[in-house]
């Protein structure tokens, strides 16, 4: 695992955008794995800037989301499909039919999860997967205790994660859904390049476990230690316990 410490999110965003630009220059129909949360926002802004400057086209790219809340109405602003469109995919030339996420309103949840796995496989797998990390060490919504061999499935969110994400729901933890559909740890590990971003001291313990802890389902991100091509980009605060 490659660990890169930078002064702040602007420098991190620039390095990640370089990697995406290189990938799309070599492989215009590359498959991107997109993450929600606040960590990748600076990356999306930088990619939009480079797109507007004519440096990157996403016209032939495809994108898969890591996860989705269960039960939010289709037009809810915090539905991850809507979040990513507003933050990134709707601001570039990535056709909306090329963006897929787990179906959080499916009646038949196991079938929807299996279909999502099949869609990723049919696209040839993810070339570059962006990841944030939860303060409890989750990636996507694989909470502590998630099987390292897990695939896309329904999960219950922990109180900690619902509290962390309440800021997106007007500060009201009760408005945060209790369940989600999420790519599993093995799904994420199938991507060819994992790029995890973390900034701020609230992530320092999770980052310490990710980089220096034993691989354990109690800190799900530690599974990345087994990935042949994983890059972790940190600011000084997130790296402060290394
Ligand atoms: C959510 C998302 C994760 C994300 C995490 C951290 O729980 N499902 O994919 O990594 O939040 O979010 P943030 O980047 O806002 O700290």
From TrEMBL:
Pathway per the UniProt entry: Amino-sugar metabolism; N-acetylneuraminate degradation; D-fructose 6-phosphate from N-acetylneuraminate: step 5/5
InterPro entries noted in UniProt: Glc/Gal-6P_isomerase (IPR006148), Glucosamine6P_isomerase (IPR004547), Glucosamine6P_isomerase_CS (IPR018321), NagB/RpiA_transferase-like (IPR037171)
UniProt keywords, alphabetically: Allosteric enzyme, Carbohydrate metabolism, Hydrolase
UniProt-listed Enzyme Commission number(s): 3.5.99.6
Domain Glucosamine/galactosamine-6-phosphate isomerase stretches: 10-227
Family from the record: Belongs to the glucosamine/galactosamine-6-phosphate isomerase family. NagB subfamily.
HAMAP family cross-referenced by the UniProt entry: GlcN6P_deamin
Name of this chain's protein: Glucosamine-6-phosphate deaminase
Originating organism: Georgenia alba
